[in-house]
Task: structure prediction
Amino acid sequence: MAETLIRLRDDAASTAPVVAFADLSEAGNTAAVRLSPGDDARALLPLLDQLTLIEVEFPAYTDGRGYSAASILREYGYTGELRAVGDVLVDQISHYRRVGFDAFAPNQPITREAVDKAIATWPEVYQRTVDGRAPIWAARHG
Amino acid sequence: MYQYDTHDQAMVDARVAEFTDQVTRRLDGTLSEEQFRPLRLKNGLYLQLHAYMLRVAVPYGTLNSRQMRVLGNIADTYDRGYGHFTTRQNIQYNWIKLSDTPAILADLAGVGMHAIQTSGNCIRNTTADHFAGAAADEVADPRPYAELLRQWSTFHPEFDYLPRKFKVAIIGSETDRAAMKLHDIGIQVVKNAAGEEGLRIHVGGGMGRTPMIAPVIREWLSPLQMVSYLEACLRVYNRYGRRDNKYKARIKILVHEIGADEYRRQVEDEFAHILTLGLEPPAAELDRIKAQFADPAFDPAAPDAIDRSDPDFALWVDQNVHAHKASGYGIVTISLKPVGGIPGDASADQIRLMADLARDYSFDELRVTHAQNIVLPHVRKADLYAVWQQLDAAGLATPNLDLIGDIIACPGLDYCSLANARSIPLAQKISQRFADVERQRDLGELKLKISGCINACGHHHAGHIGVLGVDRKGVENYQLLFGGSEGADTSIGSIIGPGFSEDGIVDAIERATGVYLARREAGERFLDTWRRIGNAPFKDAIYG
Amino acid sequence: MSAERFKILTGNDLLTGDVTWWTGSNWSRHVNDAAALGEDAATIIAVEEAARRVVSAYVIDATRDAEGVRPAHIKDRVRAVGPTVRLDLSLRADDPAATTWIA
Result:
C-alpha cells in the first residue's frame, strides 16, 4: 500500500511538535525541527544531541540543497531520524538514502516495496558517504 | 587506456536496468512527461526538433576501436546512418526512438559505454586534452585524474540536483587544448621543482550567456586530495549557488558575486572538514588507474623519416599531424570538416573505418576533440601514408586543421530546440568561400566558431572569429565577434557591431581576413593582429 | 500577402519522437494536414498527452499559402520539413524548394 510516511528505523516516530528552523531561537528545548532549502544545516550542530527528528524539506525535487544538509548533519554525528519531506519521488530515493535520510514523507504516496527496490538500484557505489557502504575503491584495495 | 573491471561494468549494467524501467514506466503512463523529462535528461536523452536525441558519453574523449565500431553500428541500426561528434567530446544521434533506447544502452554497455550524466543539472562527462599521453609537450598525463573523477562523479548522491549543469576539464600541458579555463572547474596537472605532480584548480569559468574565465582557486593541490577538494568545491556550490534564476545559476556567477577569495575561503573550510571523513580513494587506486594509461609498446626503432613525394600527402602531414612524444610516431587528427560538410558529422561507414585504422595503426586508440575532430594518437610515421590513403578514399583527409575551414558549429536550428538560428548552413558557406586550402594556409591558424544561440555550444566566445545566431523578429540574424581564444591565452570575444544576414556575414568574415592580410606582421595569427591593432580597422572594412 | 492567421497544434509522437500535427481528430506527420483550432487546445493537449499519443504539444500561429499550411515561425517550419542540411532525410527529399519555403 502506498504510504505518506515511510521509516527505515525501528524506533518509534517522534511525536514532538516540529519547529521551523526560523523559529528555533524561541523554541527552547526543541526535539524536532524542519529545515527549508535555504537554511544552514550547520546552525543545528549545537542541538544535535537534543534533536530526535530533523525534517528536510524538498519543495521541488530538483532543489538539491537538502542532500548537502543531510550529509552535513550525519557527518557531524546526528543519529536521530532524518526525514525527507515534500516532493520526494521514488527515483531519488536511492540518493536520499546514500546521504543519510532514513525516513520519507512524500507528497505523493509511495509503497514500501518501491522504496526498497529503489534503494537496491546500485549493486555497488563509487563514493564513500554517510551511509557506510564500502565504495568500489575499497573493494579493489581491501 | 582504461578498461572496465567487474565493478565498473556492474554500475553501467545497473544503469541500463534502471533506465529501462523508467522508459517502461513512461510508456505505460506511470510517469508523466514532467516527471520523466529530468530522468531521461540524466541519461542524455533529449526531445529535439525532429525526434529524440541521444548523447553518448565518451569519457575524456578516449575510446578504443571496439567502442568506436559500436558507435558506427548504432548509427546504422537505430539512427539514420550517421552521428554527430560534439564540442564536449561526446557523440549525439539525432533520430532516436524512445522505445529503442534500452537496446541502445545495452549495446553501449557491452563495450563499457553509456549515456550517464550527459545532460541534467549534475556533474557532466569530464573532458580532457585530446592529445593526452601522446603530446610532445606534455608535463603529465591528465587521463588518470579524469578517470578518477569519472568514478567519483558517477551517481554522486549529493550532487545530482545542482543549481545547474557542471563541467570539468583537465589538461597536463602548458598548451591548453581543452578550453580548460572556460569550464566550471578546470584542472591543470603541473610538476614542481622536485618533479612531483600537483593540480592547479581553476573554478568559475564558462561560456553561455555570461562568459567568464575561471580564476585560480588553488595553486597546488596534492593529487591524493583531489576528490576531497572537489567535494568541497561542489558542496559550497550546491548549498550557495543561485537557484532563483537559471541564467545566474552556474558556479561562475557564485564565484563572481562573492569573489574568488571568499569562495576559496569557504572551500578551504569545507575541505578541512571533508578531509576528516576519509572520502579519498587511496594512492593504490590512482596507481591502478595510472598503470592502465601506461604508454603502449612504442617501437624505439621506428623510423623518423616521412616520404613526402606525394604533395597532397605532404600537405596533410604538415597540417594534420602533430609532434608525438615518441620518436618515429605522429599524432594524426582526422578532420570532420570537409569543404561544404557538416562539422562533426560522420557516417556509420566513416566511423567504422576510423575504428579499423585505430586498431591497425594507433594501438587501438582514438580520441574525440572538442573541435569536433577525431584523433589517432599514436601512428608510426612509416604508416602515415597508408593511413592517409584510406582516409582520403573515405573523404576524411581534409588538410585544414586549425584553419578557417576547421569550423566548430553547434547543430543549430536544423536540429536543436533551443536554437535561434541555423549554424551548419553558415559553416558550409564559409568553408566553401574559403575552399582553397592554399588560401586557408596563407590565413594561418584561425579558429572560427559558430553558435546558434546564446548557450554557446559552438564556443563562439572563444573563437578568433565567433558567430552568434540570433532571432530578429523571426528572421535569422548573425552577430560577429572577434578576439576570443580557448588556449593558454584564453580570452573572450566581443561583438563588433550590428548583425548580418547569412550571406552578409560570410562577406564580413572575408573582409576581416582581408584586413588581417594587409596589416599582419611577421609571425602574427589573425588573433594576434586583431589584438595589436584593435577593432577599428576591421569595423571600417566591414561596415565601411 | 495578407494571409489570415490561425492556430494549429503540434507536438512529437511519444514513442518515435516524430513531429506530428493535430488534424482535428488525430495526428499526422504532414503539416498540411494540420487543422485550424477552436478554443479547445488545452483540452486536446490534456487528453492526448494523457493518452500518451503525443508529448510536448503546443499551439502555434500559421497561415495558408500556395503550398498549404505555413507555420509562422521558422523553427516550426524546420520541424515541418526536417533539417535543411539533410534534406535527403526530410519529408521533402529531392525538393530544392524546401529550403526556400523554410527560410
